Each structure stands twice: as structure tokens, then as C-alpha cells.
Amino acid sequence: PLVAERAEGAYIYTDRGPLIDLCMGFGPLILGHRPQPVLEAVRAWLEKGWLYALLTEPEIELGELIVRHVPSVKMVRFVASGSEATMNAIRLARAYTRRDVVVKFEGNYHGAHDYVLVKAGSGAATWGVPTSAGIPQEVAKLTAVVPYNDAEAFRAAMREVGPRLAAVIVEPVAANYGLIVPDPDFLKALREETESMGAMLVFDEVVTGFRLGLSGAQGYFGVLPDITTLGKIITGGFPGGAFGSRRDVMELVAPSGPVYNAGTFNAHPISMVAGVATIRELEKGYPYQIADDAAKRLAEGIEEVASRLGFDVVVKRIASMFQLYFKKGDVKRPQDVRASDEKTYLRLHALALKHGVYLTPSQFEVNFTSAAHTKEVVEEVLTALEKAFRELKSSG
To answer: Which domains does the chain have, with CATH numbers?
Structure first.
């Protein structure tokens, strides 16, 4: 395995030499590695100590920034990870609706807790089958799995689930099964159906929050959920997560309500400081411009090189996220990702490493750009990837 030694800007330095990083910590590092505003803020706060079991000003400030920018969030609670954020969001939705059943989508990832580690079978709504040992079947049966990005299949599943539905949880952009950008009517269908059934719509914006702009996917697509979960970018590359909603929902969370939530490292001061520094920089606008332009140029450049060399490659992109697939035709649903040539992607990944580029290590993950991916860095990536594609072609 590669062993990281240090990182700076768009580069990660390993025991095998420097690499241009397109993984970026799987998404949190939208400003690049070691951005000065975050580094200086964290260094300054470390001089004051780093754990108090009390409220801190950075926690207040980060909460205010999230409420200001994320349209559906009027109150927010911090936790220690994205997994904890989705776990608490589901618990909160069940408490608010006094129902038990949760619907999730094939190919969506919501963390490593028992509520969501279930897989799909055949049918419009498949009752959960655990994807990990140690999860009781009785727990998994409270989660139904539905095809992603298929509004009609979703509506059919809702008729099957009926009045037991507490919540629908979704990645508004699927970013943990490759990259799948939803059709315009899909998220709207989720909003309409959950409203009509008195259920909660939960957007898992751990990846898309502050990545698709300050207002995340809900602002990008103009569809507002009942509960939002956040992580990655909101704590600037340090551990953390959050869940938020309107006031009447969040007041159910302890100590004001009966929904339990606590944790030693919730709202850790260093994570809060890093998050504030990150979002303050994002508010200036330039990080989004650089990162989005870089992803656009890379997506277009990869498609051009691949086509010129005779490869069938599809590149999907939204904002500063992209992924490439070795296949003909579009990628709109999880089965399209599975139909791609994973072995060839892995060969390209290995050749890219040889030429100094760290693509995300699986076609079921996503590549990310950052404010550190300048035009010069992007051209360096495309030059390296052309070499990798040529070697891939010559090796048969």
C-alpha cells in the first residue's frame, strides 16, 4: 500500500514519491491540503487547549454559518462523524413521525450503522438484508431498499410501504457508488411523496454539503428536505458531522426533548475551528470557481484523450466531483456502474500512480478537485493520464 508522509496544495507525498491528489481525503479537502487559513486557525486554537466538555465560540459560529447557508436547517446539532449524523437523523425522524420504517436507495451509502447497512434484492421495495455480520435481521427488516434515480419505481415502493413510513433517506447526488447525478424529476418525486404521506425526507449531504456550493445539493436542485446531514467539508478535514432541521423537529433532541444524543467528541473545538475557517474561505467564492473549472476541464480532457485512443469512456461530473467509467452509454443508475469495466479502471489507476496521479482507487468512488487544482496542475494531470491511457492501450 501507499504510505502518506505529508501533503501540500494538490499534492500528496508518499513513500513512492509525490502524487497529484484527486481523492482529497474522499471529499473534505475542498481548499486543498494544508490550506493556510485552516492551518493558522487550528494552530492558534491548539495553544488554548483542545477539549473542555463545555460550549465554545467556534461551535456557535459554525452552527450559525450552517444555518445561514443551508436552506432547510434552522437548528443544528454536531456529532463526531457522518455516520453518527445519519444515525441520529433516522432516530429523530422516527421519533417525530412515531413510525418505524425507513426507505433508502440502492447504491447510496449512509455510514456504518445498523439502520442503513442493508442491501437490495428484486422488486420495487426490497425489505432489508444485512450487508454486514452482526446486524440482526429484525433491525434490517425495518429498512426497505428502492432503485435509485427511478421516480416511478419509488412511487410504486411508497404504495407498498404505506403508512408505516417514517423517513426516506437519500444521497441527493449518489457519490458512494461512483457518481450518479439524479434526473430532475427524481428528487422532486421524493419531496412530493414524503409530504403526501406525512413522512420525513432526509438528505444525506455529507459529501454534497458545501461541495455543490454554500447551499449544497438542496440549493443546487431547489428541493428542500426535512432533515439534513452534513460532514466532511464542514469540519475542514477533521473528524465531525452534523444533523439539522427546522426548530420544531430539532427541539425533540435532548436536552429539550426525548431523542437522545451525546458524545465526548461532539463539536470538538479543533474540528469547529477548522470548519469555520473553511467555510469563511468558501464564502469568498474563488475556491468554487477554481475547483469546478478544474473538474470540468479534467472531465472534458479525459473523454477527449480516451476517445482519441479508442476507448469507450463515460465521464460523469457535477461541480467539483467527477468519475470515469469504461463503458458505452450513460451512467444513470447503480446497475450502469456495475456494468462498467472495473478491471480496466483498476489498471488505469495503477498506471496513473506510475505517472504521478492519484485517481480515486475504485470506480465505485469519486474524484474530487479543490481550490489547489490550478490550471497548471490540471494540465499536468491530463498529460500524465494520456501516458497512462497509451500504456493501457499498448498492454491490450
So the answer is: 4-34+285-394 (3.90.1150.10), 37-282 (3.40.640.10)
Half-sphere exposure of 33 (CA within 13 A, CB side): 18
- Please indicate whether residue 387 is annotated as part of the active site: no
Whole-model pTM over 0.70: yes
Q: CB under 8 Å to 222, separation ≥6 — which residues?
A: none
What Å distances lie between residue 202 and 3, 172, 242, 333, CA to CA?
37, 9, 13, 20
136-165, pLDDT tens digit by residue?
777 878 899 999 999 999 999 999 898 999
Peptide bond into 255 cis (omega under 30): yes
How far apart (Å, rounded) are the C-alpha atoms in residues 265 and 290?
Answer: 33
Active site residue 96: no
pLDDT class for 228, splitting at 50, 70, 90? very high
Q: Which of the 8 DSSP states describes residue 15?
A: T
Contact present, 128 and 122 (Cβ < 8 Å): no
The larger pLDDT score, comparing residue 70 to residue 125, is at 70
Catalytic residue among 232, 288, 292, 336: 232
Indicate the DSSP class of residue 165.
E
Instruction: Name residue, grid cell 427546522.
Output: 246
Could you confirm whether 232 is annotated as catalytic?
yes
Element (DSSP H or E) covering residue 105: strand 101-105
Max CA separation in the chain (angstroms): 65
Per-residue pLDDT, 115? 78
Q: Which of 109, 177, 288, 345 is catalytic?
A: 109
Q: What is the pLDDT of residues 294-310, one digit of tens each?
A: 999 999 999 999 999 99
Catalytic residue among 21, 150, 204, 292: 204
pLDDT of residue 122: 44
